[in-house]
Amino acid sequence: MQLKIALLGGDGIGPEVLTESVKCLQAVAETFDHSFTYSKALIGAAAMKKFRTPLPDQTLEIALEADALLFGTIGTLQYDNNPSSPIRPEQGLLRLRKELGLYANIRPVKMFPEIIKNSPLDRALVSGTDFEIYRELTGGIYYGEKKLSDDGTVATDICTYSEKEISRIAHKAFKAAKKRRKKLTLVDKANVLETSRLWRRVVKTLSESYPEVTLECLYIDNAAVQLLLNPTHFDIILTDNMFGDMLSDQGSVIIGSQGLLPSASIGEKHCMFEPVHGSYPKAEGKNKANPVASILSTALLLGHFGMKEESRAVIAAVRKSFKKKIVTPDILGSSKYGTDYVGDFIADHINDIDDDMNMN
Ligand code: IPM
Ligand code: MN
User: Fold this and answer.
1) Pocket residues for ligand 1 (CB within 6 Å)?
2) pTM summary value
3) pLDDT tens across 332-344, in order?
4) 31 CA to middle of ligand 2, Å?
5) Which residues of 38-61 are buried (b: 16+ CB within 10 A; e: fewer)?
6) CA dihedral in degrees (307, 308, 313, 315; nearest 10)?
7) Angle CA 347–286–74, to nearest 5
8) Looking at this predicted complex, what is its ipTM?
9) Ligand 1 atom closest to Cα of 249?
10) Could you give the domains of the chain?
């Protein structure tokens, strides 16, 4: 298969982890006889430095022309320390998601038995954790009107959702549940928010078309608790942009590190693959960021294009790195290797044919 892949490293550790992902994609290309070509483009603070905008036209052009995008991370301390800056690196990512129509953000949260000790939660509790968050990505409070009164003392963020925005991601979530353990949890705040009440109505109506899937509705505060008390309860979680952002970071800690969670952002025409974690500015350039979330995002990319065996090979190589303790310092109690060393190890083991590492 031939694929044109746009590489948007962004800020902080983004470019570093992306380098390791490209190594892995190249190992896949060689092992399975594919041809991947890459074009790099700037986004976020890195783009602001050169072009004064977090999403330059040439970046958007490259993104629109690519078959798929690999995204790094966005944000720097300079802007984190200056929250009132009117132009922010994050706006580049938000606009990109909107321009590409990437409305469905899928964040799989799966416990790897090899590193279960890394979870801050009890082993018996987290063992077998395997759920996916379907986060709506191009609507809600992230994209509503924002206002600050002239005297700077009153601020407003509007949260809007339409039936159409809810149903298109809900369909995707129900279809995913149908293929898995047939349980869908809608997370909202329907006891307070009008948008949440619309989500409930739309999702309940849709659920009639998926009789084999059991629908459960939880308020976000309760969901946050249940996720910690009983993570194996969950199969597919469907939720809005903001709640999905929060729950997914919580999910990454449950399985042991923020450096582990990948995600796929899918629209009608475009697709982008990005780690769930942030730009980790303190680790920038120190060769200590965990490349696994980004590498697992390439596994999602491969799976998205039907390259199932290739995707499994990447996951198996990652698991081999866990087993051999070739891991970065965030994976506690193990040997500590650099970002590039871990990336090299994983890329080097993609062509292993090793049945005992087989996993889905
Ligand atoms: C994420 C990130 C982004 C988000 C930020 C960087 C805008 O936290 O992908 O989870 O909130 O969507
Ligand atoms: Mn986030």
Assistant:
1) 74-75, 90, 93, 245, 276, 278
2) 0.96
3) 766 789 999 999 9
4) 33
5) ebebbbbbbbbeeeebbbbeebbe
6) 110
7) 80
8) 0.99
9) 10
10) 1-103+265-360 (3.40.718.10), 120-254 (3.40.718.10)
